[in-house]
Specification:
- This protein is an alpha/beta fold and 301 residues long.
- Helices cover 43% and strands 11% of the residues.
- The protein contains 13 helices and six strands.
- The longest helix has 34 residues.
- The mean pLDDT is 84.
């Protein structure tokens, strides 16, 4: 299933919408499912007419609840003193319910803009929008300098590593150039690629989790089976090493079980330290070391 992306714009003089058309192409070229919206106008028709604003495009007005249906959003709007215009800020202020429920956490967003001059907010318009994304847990996706037009010094080119942009001039007479439109197309395609990758990975992980649930449950149940009641506990007590005697020596020497018990010997040995040391020495010589390197009389003793 492809990523679902909302393209939401506010364009007073059509410059932003021209960039938006190219962003939409890029999104679709990358295989995303795209739906366009526009921000609600807060100015009266009379004021917009005095500002020589263009007619509004035939896109549905976005509502906060619309955002819940999408994996990502691309916002396009002009700048007002280096930040988003009031129409966009008014919409952001309506998303408190989404913030309270964490409805937008983990989604993705990108921004493109239009300014009157080349120093009029090409970067700060996006930068001052990032706090909105941060508070909602939305992942901001910039474009970097991967598009070569952003490094072109042969002519005036709008745009920044934050996103595509155009320069409209103070009277709106300048229109987006081919290079600026190319940056916008790149932004749409790149953004869709990022969100598509996330959505595909999420779906794959969900499928892997469901397919492995049954074997995991079986393994867990197997661990709960108690051992058989007749199981014999293993004796791990270390056993002393002894040297086996054979032949006539074994027959001539009485076993320990047959030997008479002398209760007085331990008492005497305890009272005489020298005797105890001698007995310990003899016992040591009867071991493997004595067979290898000891003397014959030692073995007999």
């Amino acid at each position: 299933m492809p990523a679902k992306i909302a393209l939401i714009t506010y364009s007073l003089y059509t410059h932003v919408d021209q960039l938006g058309h190219k962003v939409e192409e890029g999104l679709k070229d990358a295989g995303a499912e795209v739906k366009r919206f526009r921000f609600a106008e807060t100015l009266s028709d009379e004021v917009v007419a005095k500002m020589h604003g263009a007619p509004k495009p035939d896109y549905p007005v976005v509502t906060p609840d619309d955002l819940k249906e999408f994996d990502g959003f691309v916002f396009g709007f002009g700048t007002r003193y280096g930040r988003a215009p009031a129409q966009v800020s008014a919409f952001f202020d309506q998303t408190g319910g989404l913030w309270a429920t964490g409805a937008l956490v983990g989604k993705f967003a990108s921004v493109f803009t239009s300014t009157a001059g080349q120093h009029g907010g090409q970067e700060t318009t996006a930068l001052t929008t990032v706090p909105f994304f941060v508070h909602h847990g939305i992942n901001f996706v910039p474009i970097g300098y991967a598009n070569a037009n952003l490094s072109d010094l042969s002519e005036l080119v709008g745009g920044s590593p934050y996103g595509a942009a155009t320069i409209a001039a103070g009277d709106g007479s300048r229109q987006p150039t081919a290079k600026e439109l190319d940056i916008a197309h790149y932004q749409g395609k790149y953004f869709a690629g990022v969100v598509n990758t996330f959505v595909a990975g999420k779906q794959k992980l969900a499928g892997a989790s469901s397919s492995s649930a049954e074997p995991a449950a079986t393994a867990a149940a197997a661990k709960d089976i108690p051992p058989p009641a007749t199981a014999i506990a293993e004796d791990n007590t270390p056993q002393p090493y002894t040297v086996e005697e054979s032949g006539a020596d074994a027959a001539a020497k009485p076993t320990e079980e047959a030997a008479p018990k002398d209760t007085a010997a331990p008492v005497a040995a305890a009272s005489n330290p020298t005797t105890a040391k001698q007995q310990a020495k003899k016992q040591k010589k009867k071991g493997l070391f004595a067979l290898c390197c000891g003397k014959e009389e030692d073995l007999k003793n």
